[in-house]
Amino acid sequence: MIKNIFNSNTNLYLAYTQKSFWQAYANSAYIRDTNYTPEIFFSSVGNYPLFAGWRLKYLNWGALHQSNGRGDAEERTWNRLYVAPILSKGNWMITIKPWYVVDDKATREHNPNIAYYLGYDSVLVAYKYCGQVFSVERTNVESGVKRGAIIVTWSLPLNKKVKFYTEFFGGYGQSLTEYNHSTASVGVGIALNDWI
C-alpha cells in the first residue's frame, strides 16, 4: 500500500486473490480448479453524506486480471477495469461495482462470451449484527435472474482474528473454467476478514 497518492486521501493498493475448489468429499479428493486474480486499485477514503443517512465511505477504482492458469482450449481469462463506491449506514454496507471488460486477444480466443454469463456489474449488501456479518451479492444484474449469480454468506467470530465462514453460491461463474455452466454449492471455512 502507498498512502496519500497525489497529496490526497487516496491510497494505492496491490492485491492478489487465489481461489481453489477442493473437492474434499470426493473418493479421491483433489483441487478441481484454481482461479488467480492479481489487482491494482486506488481507494479514496471519505465520509461524505449522500441521502437518508447513507454516507460514501470509500471510492475504489482499478484494474484486475483473472485467469485459471491453464493453456490452450482450457484457458479462461479476462481483464476488467472497475469503479466501486462503498456506502454505509449504521450496520449496513452497500457496494455497487460496474466494470468494463477489456477486449483483448486472450478473451476473444478462449472465452468470447464470458461477459454474457458473468455480466458487467455486481451489487453487494452486507449487514452486521452482534459481530456476525450477513451478505448477499448479485452479479450480472442487467440480465435480471437469467444469468450471473447470487452469493449469500454468513460469518461468525470464533476469536478476535478468525471467523467461521459459510457461503451459498447459485448461478454462473463460481469458477472460470465453468463460467458458462450454472452451479449451486454450499461451502464452509474460516475467514480472517469480512465486508464490515
Topology, please?
Blueprint: E1 2-5, E2 10-22, E3 31-49, E4 55-67, E5 77-89, E6 92-101, H1 105-110, H2 114-118, E7 121-129, E8 132-139, E9 149-157, E10 163-171, E11 183-191
Antiparallel strand pairs: 1-2, 2-3, 3-4, 4-5, 5-6, 6-7, 7-8, 8-9, 9-10, 10-11
Describe this structure in words.
This protein is mostly beta strands and 196 residues long. It has a single domain, classed as Outer membrane phospholipase (ompla), Chain C. It has helices at 105-110, 114-118, and strands spanning 2-5, 10-22, 31-49, 55-67, 77-89, 92-101, 121-129, 132-139, 149-157, 163-171, 183-191. It has an 11-stranded antiparallel β-sheet with strand order 1-2-3-4-5-6-7-8-9-10-11. Strand 1 and strand 2 form a beta hairpin. The longest helix is centred in the middle third of the chain and has 6 residues, at 105-110. The protein starts with a strand and ends in a 5-residue tail after the last strand. The mean pLDDT is 91.
Which terms summarize this structure?
eleven-stranded antiparallel β-sheet, 196 residues, 2 helices, 59% strand, Outer membrane phospholipase (ompla), Chain C, mainly beta, 11 strands, 6% helix, globular
**Helix count from the secondary structure assignment:** 2
Query: What is the class in the CATH system?
Result: Mainly Beta
The Cα radius of gyration reads 18 Å
Major sheet size, sense and barrel closure: 11 strands, antiparallel
Compact description:
The chain has helices spanning 105-110, 114-118, and strands at 2-5, 10-22, 31-49, 55-67, 77-89, 92-101, 121-129, 132-139, 149-157, 163-171, 183-191.
